[in-house]
Amino acid sequence: MNNILKRIALANRNLAILIDPEKMKVDAISAFAKAVMPTISTLENQLQIDQFYFLVGGSTMENVDFEKWIITLKENTHIPIVIFPGSSKQLSEDAHGILFLNLLSGRNPEYLVEQQLQAAQKLKNTSLEVLPTGYLLLDGGKETAVQRISRTKPLNQNQISTIVNHAYAAQLMGNRLIYLEAGSGATHPVSAEIVHEVSKQINIPLIVGGGLRTMHQIEETFNAGAKMVVIGTAIEEDISWNG
């Protein structure tokens, strides 16, 4: 598996299912991979999805054998696996790619450069496809794990011009993807207006996630300009979720 970035850019609609290894034990992966396939087929048909991905990562990843977890998932699925890391410790050569995140909505140097420097040492000779990603945390109506761990405040969704400027700056800095994140279980997903305004300003693929629980919300997000939509909590709570 290679050229994930190219695949995302060329596809009209990409859908990623976010899995947190802290919430799923290794011995449950096989059953999950089998049970989620009918859901993926339903989503593919109803939303006209071109490409599916698994995003794998969590905020702390304590007491998780991340390498073993990734290997087990890879053995049980044909869907590309992309690491969505909470820190430089969440790396595995057995994934297909990794979002190299820059938390540009915050001003904590630990997540602007320090974690990236630590990861760079491990990625020098990697076979992973590295996807530089400008990561913007938006206020989704509740405190998120990202907010707590990074000790940064999310951007206010009412300040659309500020969000657009952050996204455009991320592109100018060389990022190849922009990720608008309302946070896991957000009560207020990223608004379609924000997605529309950001997508108008940038010319790189836009990823949107956090709090999307209905087909209507996902469809609206795609129509507003997202190249990839990420769902997590909805499937985590109901493996047969179909919006």
From TrEMBL:
GO terms for biological process: glycerophospholipid biosynthetic process. It catalyses: sn-glycerol 1-phosphate + (2E,6E,10E)-geranylgeranyl diphosphate = sn-3-O-(geranylgeranyl)glycerol 1-phosphate + diphosphate. Its cofactor is Mg(2+). Signal peptide: none annotated. Belongs to the GGGP/HepGP synthase family. Group II subfamily. Prenyltransferase that catalyzes the transfer of the geranylgeranyl moiety of geranylgeranyl diphosphate (GGPP) to the C3 hydroxyl of sn-glycerol-1-phosphate (G1P). This is Geranylgeranylglyceryl phosphate synthase. It comes from Nonlabens dokdonensis (strain DSM 17205 / KCTC 12402 / DSW-6) (Donghaeana dokdonensis).
